[in-house]
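Submission sheet (multi-component)
Chains listed below:
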Amino acid sequence: MRAARPILPWVVWGIAALSYAVAIINRSSLSALGPAAQEHFGIDATTLAAFPVIQLVVYAGLQIPVGVLLDRIGARAMILIGGALMIAGQAAMATVPEVSLAIVARVLVGAGDACTFISVMRMLPEWFSLRQLPTISQVTGLIGQSGQLVSVVPLAVLVGGAGWMGGFLGLAAVGLLVVILGVVVLRDAPGEGTLLERITGRRGRVTENARSFADSRTAALSAVQPPATEMIPVISEVRVRGLGFWNRARRLLRLPGVRLAYWVHFASPFAANVFLLLWGTPFLVGGLGLDEAAARALLSLTVVSSMVASVVLGPLSSRFIERRVWFNLGITVAIAVVWTAVIVWPATPPLALVLVLLLILPLGGPASMIAFEVARSHTPRSYAGFGTGLVNTGGFTASLLVILLIGLVLDVQGAGSPEDYSLHAFQVAFAVQIPFWVLGIVMIVVEQRRTKRWMEDNGRTLR
Ligand SMILES: N[C@@H](Cc1c[nH]cn1)C(=O)NCC(=O)O
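Outcome: structure written.
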């Protein structure tokens, strides 16, 4: 008799993905509330712009420490700690009277956000088969990114109706609800208990009988090979006493596959992040002369395009595992080419070209998820958190640098504020992306070759 298919992996994944969606809601909670925040704290636009930058700095800066901690205390604890930090941050945001304290609140939100995504990604391989993982990861990204939609309309409506304090306390309450669900449901791996079970000292039947797709011996799964991470003995699984951070980092970076994953994440998502986090609306309105409603409608196109790409790329990169890096590279090159066309266009670019840009640009987000697949294939298991955190810094450092450089280049041209914006100034400013694409694309090609050679030399096949 065939054993029933396990349900627990789906339940654990559902709460983990929900935690990530809440992290994104918290991350983007100020995106539609700029004027409300300015009015509430009495701040100018420059101070307002500091919020997303500080948050990104905190997020990117914490990826590696969070990754190291993740390998020590596990994904369940990190997701719950992340949730608690975000609740504290949003409760503080709701109640503090001064902008300096609001920045501290934002740092808490950024720190909690930094704990969430890579912990969710670390948890998935414990519950799903290698064949399922690319699709599950993409859908996780899709669910998370849909959190952005919540912060745009429902949160703005909530703050409009219940006021600043009511809105942000409401957000903290949603976070609390999801953390409570996490305390009851999240488990690092089959057989490991929930936090509630740890606190009460009682292990329930669900934990005792837990099975995952990763270890079940169904006919479909028996064809799937064991994870490559188990097979790469370059780094000893034995914890070496006193092995310091830099030593670990050096050992990890010696693996060409890990470096490849880093550059894959570096090259693909920054253009979309930069556009969606800060410079998209100013460019569409101040550069192309569209009205705000048209800009919003065009920006919503990016969400649709990103969702379609997530659904397509997961199964594709699972089916054609040898080509997954080329899918990422193809998307990055397409983004670079279309953006470059907009940048060098001698007059106002035609609407058709802008539409193509807005459809191609968001593919970088789902494409960057391939980096985590590459990292998983090449990172030894006990370094998985560290590796995921390291890879995740790629896209976010690139995004942060490009956001700052665009602002700087606009300022240098004397076009730093809305009344001075011009198409030409934006075209020059957005050109700062070009060296980032060139660097990313060259490094992907170089590291892809090195990885291939390394695998041949070590008799490995890709899994
Ligand atoms: N590439 C993004 C996630 C994504 C998935 N689909 C669209 N974007 C990423 O790296 N996310 C990390 C995070 O913390 O959100």
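Remark: Residues 154-185 form the longest helix (32 residues).
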